[in-house]
Design a protein that fits this description.
Blueprint (H helix, E strand, L loop, with lengths): L18 E5 L6 E7 L3 H11 L5 E8 L6 E8 L5 H40 L11
Antiparallel strand pairs: 1-2, 2-4, 3-4
């Protein structure tokens, strides 16, 4: 089979950079960011956030061939910040959101485990018998 090994889709090779920035000639305040080992999930999240930024005039992404795990994100700003600053700001925001989501998930998981333990030890009624007196 010609398919690459699964790990090749997520792990960077020796000397391989995760992100490469290229300014777009002839278009002011415009850059393309090539992000290796990523797909539509990250491209959509980053560009969705960028489109909400009032300093960003354009944000879009494209993914090439499905067997090539790389996306290209193009950003054009109004000049008050560089495309790189907008990109970094979006990434930091998404990291914050993901961290918050992870912490909330862990809290809910702990509460669910506690509730399950309470139900098992008290037969689901807080240990007060059957309630049929």
């Amino acid at each position: 089979m010609n398919a690459p090994d699964r790990f090749e889709a997520i792990l960077l090779g020796p000397g391989e950079k995760k992100i490469q920035e290229e300014m777009v000639p002839g278009q002011p305040n415009t850059a393309e960011f090539f992000v290796k080992k990523e797909d539509h999930t990250l491209g959509n999240m980053i560009t969705s956030y960028l489109k909400k930024d009032p300093n960003v005039l354009f944000a879009g992404y494209k993914a090439g061939h499905p067997n090539v795990p790389e996306i290209m994100i193009r950003i054009q700003t109004n000049g008050t910040m560089t495309p790189k600053e907008a990109f970094v700001k979006a990434c930091k925001h998404l990291i914050t959101i993901c961290g918050h989501t992870g912490r909330e998930w862990q809290k809910e998981l702990a509460l669910r485990k506690y509730a399950d333990q309470s139900e098992q030890s008290g037969n689901g009624n807080g240990g007060q018998g059957s309630g049929n007196h």
